[in-house]
Inverse folding.
Protein backbone atom coordinates (compact mmCIF):
# COMPACT_ATOMS: atom_id res chain seq x y z
CA UNK A 1 0.00 0.00 0.00
CA UNK A 2 1.34 3.43 -0.94
CA UNK A 3 1.19 6.01 1.82
CA UNK A 4 0.59 9.51 0.53
CA UNK A 5 1.78 12.38 2.69
CA UNK A 6 -0.75 15.10 3.56
CA UNK A 7 1.37 17.67 1.69
CA UNK A 8 1.38 15.49 -1.42
CA UNK A 9 -2.40 15.19 -1.15
CA UNK A 10 -2.69 18.99 -1.00
CA UNK A 11 -0.34 19.44 -3.94
CA UNK A 12 -2.19 16.87 -6.06
CA UNK A 13 -5.68 18.35 -5.61
CA UNK A 14 -7.19 19.76 -8.76
CA UNK A 15 -10.55 20.91 -10.00
CA UNK A 16 -12.61 18.24 -11.76
CA UNK A 17 -15.56 19.57 -13.75
CA UNK A 18 -16.79 16.29 -15.22
CA UNK A 19 -18.27 14.34 -12.36
CA UNK A 20 -20.75 11.52 -11.99
CA UNK A 21 -22.32 9.44 -9.23
CA UNK A 22 -21.63 8.43 -6.63
CA UNK A 23 -21.30 11.49 -4.45
CA UNK A 24 -19.75 11.10 -1.01
CA UNK A 25 -21.89 8.98 1.32
CA UNK A 26 -23.63 10.94 4.07
CA UNK A 27 -21.02 10.00 6.69
CA UNK A 28 -18.25 11.15 4.31
CA UNK A 29 -20.11 14.36 3.53
CA UNK A 30 -20.48 14.99 7.26
CA UNK A 31 -16.69 14.64 7.65
CA UNK A 32 -16.07 16.93 4.68
CA UNK A 33 -18.40 19.62 6.04
CA UNK A 34 -16.92 19.26 9.52
CA UNK A 35 -13.48 19.96 8.00
CA UNK A 36 -14.85 23.35 6.93
CA UNK A 37 -15.32 24.20 10.61
CA UNK A 38 -11.51 24.18 11.05
CA UNK A 39 -11.03 27.25 8.86
CA UNK A 40 -9.28 30.24 10.44
CA UNK A 41 -11.98 32.61 11.60
CA UNK A 42 -11.24 35.96 13.23
CA UNK A 43 -13.83 36.59 15.93
CA UNK A 44 -15.32 33.09 15.65
CA UNK A 45 -18.07 34.51 13.43
CA UNK A 46 -18.33 31.32 11.36
CA UNK A 47 -19.58 33.31 8.36
CA UNK A 48 -19.76 30.38 5.96
CA UNK A 49 -23.11 28.99 4.89
CA UNK A 50 -23.66 25.91 2.73
CA UNK A 51 -26.81 24.83 0.88
CA UNK A 52 -26.92 21.15 -0.16
CA UNK A 53 -28.61 20.47 -3.51
CA UNK A 54 -29.02 16.87 -4.63
CA UNK A 55 -31.43 14.47 -6.25
CA UNK A 56 -34.43 16.03 -7.98
CA UNK A 57 -33.52 19.44 -6.57
CA UNK A 58 -30.64 19.63 -9.09
CA UNK A 59 -33.14 19.77 -11.97
CA UNK A 60 -35.07 22.50 -10.15
CA UNK A 61 -31.79 24.41 -9.64
CA UNK A 62 -31.01 24.09 -13.36
CA UNK A 63 -34.45 25.48 -14.26
CA UNK A 64 -34.20 28.34 -11.77
CA UNK A 65 -30.62 29.35 -12.52
CA UNK A 66 -30.64 29.01 -16.28
CA UNK A 67 -33.99 30.77 -16.65
CA UNK A 68 -32.66 33.62 -14.47
CA UNK A 69 -29.52 33.90 -16.59
CA UNK A 70 -31.61 34.04 -19.78
CA UNK A 71 -33.90 36.73 -18.28
CA UNK A 72 -30.83 38.75 -17.28
CA UNK A 73 -30.01 39.10 -20.97
CA UNK A 74 -26.60 37.42 -20.73
CA UNK A 75 -25.69 36.83 -24.38
CA UNK A 76 -23.49 33.87 -23.48
CA UNK A 77 -26.56 31.78 -22.63
CA UNK A 78 -27.18 30.48 -26.12
CA UNK A 79 -29.46 27.47 -26.64
CA UNK A 80 -26.33 25.33 -27.15
CA UNK A 81 -24.76 26.60 -23.92
CA UNK A 82 -27.98 25.99 -22.01
CA UNK A 83 -28.19 22.42 -23.33
CA UNK A 84 -24.55 21.81 -22.38
CA UNK A 85 -24.97 23.21 -18.85
CA UNK A 86 -28.17 21.21 -18.26
CA UNK A 87 -26.42 18.03 -19.41
CA UNK A 88 -23.45 18.71 -17.12
CA UNK A 89 -25.69 19.46 -14.14
CA UNK A 90 -27.74 16.30 -14.70
CA UNK A 91 -24.62 14.17 -14.26
CA UNK A 92 -23.33 15.84 -11.08
CA UNK A 93 -24.79 14.10 -8.01
CA UNK A 94 -24.24 16.91 -5.47
CA UNK A 95 -24.01 20.67 -5.53
CA UNK A 96 -23.23 22.82 -2.52
CA UNK A 97 -24.28 26.47 -2.68
CA UNK A 98 -21.62 28.65 -1.05
CA UNK A 99 -22.33 31.85 0.81
CA UNK A 100 -20.72 34.23 3.24
CA UNK A 101 -23.00 35.69 5.93
CA UNK A 102 -22.09 39.29 6.52
CA UNK A 103 -21.91 40.42 10.14
CA UNK A 104 -22.73 44.09 9.58
CA UNK A 105 -22.51 44.94 13.27
CA UNK A 106 -19.00 43.71 14.01
CA UNK A 107 -16.55 46.63 13.90
CA UNK A 108 -13.60 44.39 14.88
CA UNK A 109 -13.79 41.98 11.94
CA UNK A 110 -13.94 43.70 8.53
CA UNK A 111 -16.07 42.12 5.84
CA UNK A 112 -13.03 41.05 3.81
CA UNK A 113 -11.82 38.96 6.77
CA UNK A 114 -15.22 37.31 6.97
CA UNK A 115 -15.01 36.56 3.25
CA UNK A 116 -11.51 35.13 3.62
CA UNK A 117 -12.71 32.86 6.42
CA UNK A 118 -15.46 31.57 4.14
CA UNK A 119 -12.94 30.97 1.34
CA UNK A 120 -10.75 29.03 3.76
CA UNK A 121 -13.75 26.89 4.79
CA UNK A 122 -14.51 26.15 1.13
CA UNK A 123 -10.87 25.19 0.55
CA UNK A 124 -11.12 22.75 3.45
CA UNK A 125 -14.17 21.21 1.76
CA UNK A 126 -12.28 20.91 -1.53
CA UNK A 127 -9.34 19.26 0.24
CA UNK A 128 -11.66 16.93 2.17
CA UNK A 129 -13.40 15.88 -1.04
CA UNK A 130 -10.03 15.14 -2.65
CA UNK A 131 -8.71 13.31 0.42
CA UNK A 132 -11.66 10.90 0.25
CA UNK A 133 -11.07 10.19 -3.45
CA UNK A 134 -13.85 12.31 -4.95
CA UNK A 135 -13.67 15.29 -7.29
CA UNK A 136 -15.00 18.81 -7.06
CA UNK A 137 -15.37 21.93 -9.17
CA UNK A 138 -16.11 25.46 -7.92
CA UNK A 139 -18.47 27.08 -10.40
CA UNK A 140 -19.43 30.75 -10.44
CA UNK A 141 -21.76 30.21 -13.37
CA UNK A 142 -25.39 29.15 -13.02
CA UNK A 143 -26.60 32.59 -11.97
CA UNK A 144 -24.20 33.04 -9.06
CA UNK A 145 -24.30 36.84 -9.29
CA UNK A 146 -28.05 37.13 -9.78
CA UNK A 147 -30.04 38.03 -6.67
CA UNK A 148 -32.98 35.98 -7.93
CA UNK A 149 -30.92 32.78 -7.66
CA UNK A 150 -29.41 33.73 -4.33
CA UNK A 151 -32.77 34.66 -2.83
CA UNK A 152 -34.37 31.43 -4.10
CA UNK A 153 -31.72 29.50 -2.16
CA UNK A 154 -32.81 31.29 1.02
CA UNK A 155 -29.84 33.66 1.13
CA UNK A 156 -31.13 37.24 1.26
CA UNK A 157 -28.75 39.45 -0.70
CA UNK A 158 -28.78 42.09 2.06
CA UNK A 159 -27.13 39.69 4.51
CA UNK A 160 -25.20 37.23 2.33
CA UNK A 161 -22.66 37.27 -0.49
CA UNK A 162 -23.27 34.30 -2.74
CA UNK A 163 -20.02 32.73 -3.96
CA UNK A 164 -21.14 30.00 -6.35
CA UNK A 165 -21.56 26.26 -6.25
CA UNK A 166 -19.31 23.31 -5.57
CA UNK A 167 -20.08 20.40 -7.88
CA UNK A 168 -19.05 17.18 -6.12
CA UNK A 169 -18.95 13.57 -7.28
CA UNK A 170 -16.72 10.86 -8.67
CA UNK A 171 -14.36 11.98 -11.43
CA UNK A 172 -15.86 11.05 -14.80
CA UNK A 173 -12.46 10.39 -16.36
CA UNK A 174 -8.89 9.68 -15.33
CA UNK A 175 -7.52 12.51 -13.24
CA UNK A 176 -4.56 13.91 -15.14
CA UNK A 177 -1.67 15.37 -13.24
CA UNK A 178 -1.27 19.08 -13.53
CA UNK A 179 1.98 20.98 -13.61
CA UNK A 180 2.02 23.69 -10.99
CA UNK A 181 4.17 26.81 -11.13
CA UNK A 182 7.25 27.03 -8.94
CA UNK A 183 6.27 28.76 -5.72
CA UNK A 184 9.42 30.92 -5.89
CA UNK A 185 7.79 32.93 -8.68
CA UNK A 186 5.29 34.24 -6.13
CA UNK A 187 7.48 34.76 -3.04
CA UNK A 188 9.76 37.55 -1.95
CA UNK A 189 11.53 38.03 1.34
CA UNK A 190 11.21 41.35 3.08
CA UNK A 191 14.21 42.46 5.17
CA UNK A 192 13.25 46.08 5.86
CA UNK A 193 11.89 49.25 4.24
CA UNK A 194 12.92 49.95 0.64
Amino acid sequence: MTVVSPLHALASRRSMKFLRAPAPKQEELDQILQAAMSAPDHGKLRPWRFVLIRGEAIGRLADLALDAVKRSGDPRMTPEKEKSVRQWMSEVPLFIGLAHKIDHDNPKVPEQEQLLATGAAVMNILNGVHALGYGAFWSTGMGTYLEEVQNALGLDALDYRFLGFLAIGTPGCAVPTVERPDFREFVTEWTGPV
